[in-house]
Fold these 2 entries.
Entry 1:
Amino acid sequence: MALKTKFTEVFGVEHPIAQGGMQWVGRAELVAAVANAGALGFLTALTQPTPADLANEIAKTRDLTDKPFGVNLTILPSINPPPYDEYRQVIVDAGIKIVETAGSNPAPHLPMFHDNGIKVLHKCTSVRHAVKAQSLGVDGISIDGFECAGHPGEDDIPGLVLIPAAADQIEIPMVASGGFADARGLVAALALGADGINMGSRFMCTAESPIHQNVKEAIVAGTELDTELIFRPLRNTGRVASNAVSREVVQILNDGGQFEDVKDLVAGVRGNKVYETGDLDAGIWWVGTSMGLINDIPTCGELVSRMVTEAEELITERLGGAVVETVSASR
Ligand SMILES: Cc1cc2nc3c(=O)[nH]c(=O)nc-3n(C[C@H](O)[C@H](O)[C@H](O)COP(=O)(O)O)c2cc1C
């Protein structure tokens, strides 16, 4: 048996499961393992310091898998923006066929991707942005609820409402993101009108994820209560692990501090140190509320096949079994 949806059909992937871009984490080892498991992994372009490094990382991923995979291009407002056009050129030249865009309007990038036969899955956090991206001609939507790791937006609408509200207006394939970590979430997403799911935190806590074992063990030990929302007063909310640094950032900003006052605390290099050294208080590191559902460190293959098998059982047995014939009282 297999779960076939609009998403698996249009994006040419075996299972309706994606691994979204993850700064510092979305590297060749993880993305290849996700691809080999039959799901859709995305390399994170900006984790690579230069466009040439991205070309090398794509080549490295290809050495590890023959299956399709994509590249995430996160476009965020920045004082010194990275050379997005050069990263985009590398993606095209490397023959990548699927891109996940995130962070802002994908319009400037669409013509070049589409002219080169690249399908675009646009990640957003609100129904209005999903509708806008659909009207721009993207090939699929990934919609992140308030539960998610990373940037949940400022509307605070959890997936239980966000996904069906989006499904009412989205006709192209749509994957639900934020808070998904097991078969129950996958089945729920399909029931809510999505064509699959996207997971970050769950894939981050797998054997092949290229981060320190301490971080994986912290995710297993953590609960759904162990995240903080940083940058709320700046209206650029980020959901991260609760630790000494993130709690300090929340405190400073709540007390009226500005970005300048927390800039050093939230520096990306400090965050990367957490993943590299396993020092959980070295900086900010990203994880979602789905931490409360993550209880082990499986291989990507074990994770995906377990989720798909359990989802099929859930649909055919538990849910199918709840539908019973009723006998009319009048007879
Ligand atoms: C460590 C980490 C880093 C992330 N970095 C990015 C990023 O650079 N770009 C992006 O679009 N999303 C990023 N995300 C968000 C994920 O792609 C995904 O949308 C999110 O993790 C889904 O929520 P979940 O963690 O509950 O599965 C990141 C998530 C994590 C856990």
Entry 2:
Amino acid sequence: MKILGVLGSPRRGGNSDILLDEALRGASEAGAEVEKIVLDKLQIRGCRDCKSCNNTGRCIQEDDMQQVLDKVLQSQGIIHSCPVYFYSMTAQMKAYLDRWCALYDEKWKFHNHYLPRLYGKNIAVITVCGDSDIKMAELAIDPFRKLVRAETNIFKWGGSLAVPSVDVKGEVQQNQKVLEKAYQLGWQMVEISK
Ligand SMILES: Cc1cc2nc3c(=O)[nH]c(=O)nc-3n(C[C@H](O)[C@H](O)[C@H](O)COP(=O)(O)O)c2cc1C
């Protein structure tokens, strides 16, 4: 079983990076093959709404997203990890998510040829933010939760972890309780993906 980690923060060694590593460690120790993608290292442009993919199932933009989508399709579970930037997810994570558009036809139904590799896929999200209000942290989780709800017969919710009150780079490393929660999220992803 393969679990993919997708990092939306540009800050390597930052809070969401540390928590994603912990989650992937949990998934690995539960028996999964794990892989991590750092979106900031890749060239992923935003969706141009040209609708070519509605017919072909492929984006016309020749950047790194095709290889990322291949990894998404090959994984049983995906753990996204992203800080809140201006009441939302980071631009890197948003560009990645918008490019999932290539999986859909003109009626916003998944292309048939992708369906076998989408059924039962677990989607989880870890998010951090500087604000002390957990509702702020949840803003970056919400779009993923809505996506899973909209595709309720296809995707499964793999869980979430929202961590408020973290701003200094890497400070989450001192919070054993939160690290343990991230580890458990990764472990759980493997259990529910079996
Ligand atoms: C451009 C930018 C926008 C941010 N916007 C918010 C925000 O709207 N709400 C908030 O609580 N924190 C905000 N933050 C703080 C980050 O969410 C916080 O520092 C987080 O720990 C960074 O995560 P990282 O270490 O994984 O990169 C922002 C930070 C940056 C750089």
